[in-house]
Design goal:
Helices cover 29% and strands 31% of the residues. With 385 residues, it is an alpha/beta fold. A hairpin with a 5-residue loop joins strand 5 and strand 6. Helix 2 crosses helix 4, helix 8 runs parallel beside helix 9 and helix 9 crosses helix 10. It starts with a strand and ends with a strand. The structure holds S-adenosyl-L-homocysteine. S-adenosyl-L-homocysteine binds next to helix 6, strand 15 and helix 8.
Length: 385
Amino acid sequence: MSTVSISAKGEARIASGHPWVYRSDVTQVAAGRGQIVQVTSRRKAPLGYAFYSDRSEIALRMLTRASAAPAPQVFRDRIDAAIAYRESLGIDATAYRLVHGEADRLPGLVVDRYGDYLVLQALVQATDALLPELTRVLVDRLQPAGILARNDPRVRLLEGLEQRVDVLHGVVPEVIEVREGRASYAVDPYKGQKTGLFLDQRENRVAAAAYAHGRALDAFSYNGGFAMALSPRCDDVIAIDISEDAVARIVANVARNGLGNIRAHAMNVFDELRELERRGERFDTIVLDPPAFAKNKGAVPKALSGYKEINLRALKLLNPGGILVTCSCSYNVSEGMFADVIASAAADARADVVVVEKRMQGRDHPVLVTVPETYYLKCFVVRKL
Ligand code: SAH
C-alpha cells in the first residue's frame, strides 16, 4: 500500500473532521497520482486512508479514518448508501443528485440522475482513475439507459486532468426529458450548465411557489425553473437572463408546459432592475438567483456590493405584502454576511422586511458540518410589510 505522511498541522485538520489535507502539510510521499493511500503521522501512526493527488493543492481527500484499509467494495457500499438516502426523500422529480462528493464520503465524485440517464463528474485524479469501476457499480445498481461523464469543469485542470465529455455506458441523447413537480424540462446533458439543471434549487423552487402571488419577476432565470414553478400561482411572470441561449431554453420550456403567462427577455438584471424602478413598475413576487459573485475570498467585498444592489432594487420594486426569494451560491459569502446584506438593503430601501423562511441547497446536496463552505447555497424568503 502506498503511504503519505503528514505534519502535526495536517493531523489536527483531520482530527477536526475536515476531509482535506493540503500539500503544504504533506511531509513524505510514497505514492503515485490518483492512488488510494494510507495516511500516517510523521512518526508513522496510522491516520486513515485517502485519495492522493500529485497535482492539486489538496493533496489528500480522506476516505476513512480507520487504521484498516477500506474493503474492496467500499465504493459500491457508499454509492448504495447515497442512492438509498435519495430514495428515502420522496423526491417529486425525475432529476436529482444521487452522489454529492465528500458529503457522501465519495470525494471528488458527483452523480446526477436525469430520468433514465446518469450524468457524472470525476473531479479528482482518483475518481477519474476509478471511472471504469464506478461505472460498473452504477450500471449494476441502477441499470441506466446511458451514463455521460461531464468531465469538463475547470477544477479538473487543478488536478492535471483534461476537460472532456464522454459517454461511459449505453447511449445518451442530446435532449433528455425530465419532470420536476408539474413542470417538464428538456435538458441538454452535454452542454447545459453544471450537469444540465440547477438541481440544488429544486426544493427552493417548490418553496417559492408556496408564497407566489400577483405579478412575478424571476431574475437570473437560466432555463425558467423558478418562473415555471411560480406561474400557476401568479397572474404573470417575467423571466430574465443575460444569455440568449438561456432565454431560448426558457421559451422552449414554457411552450412545452403550455404556460401562457410567462414572458422571457435577454437582459442584464442590474440594468433591468434600474429600468423597472425608473418606470415605476411593481411586483408581488421576486426571485433573485444570481451566479456566484464571489468565486474567491478576494472577490467578497465586490460580491457583497453586487448582492446589496440587486436586493435593494428588488425590495423597492415590491408591493406591500410582496415576497422576495433571494439566493447566494457563493461559498465565500456566509449566511451571516448574506443576512447583513439583506438587512442593509432593507434599511436603504426604507422598508420593513421580515424573514419568513431560511433555506439552503436541497436535501440531495447535503452539507458536511465540519466543512462550513459546503453550505454554499443560501436562500432567504423575506416579506415586505
Ligand atoms: N435560477 C436558475 C439558475 C440561475 S444560474 C434555476 O433555478 O435554474 C444564474 C444565471 O444567471 C445564468 O443563467 C446566467 O446566464 C445568468 N446571469 C449571469 N449574470 C447575469 C446578469 N448580469 N443579468 C442577467 N442574467 C445573468
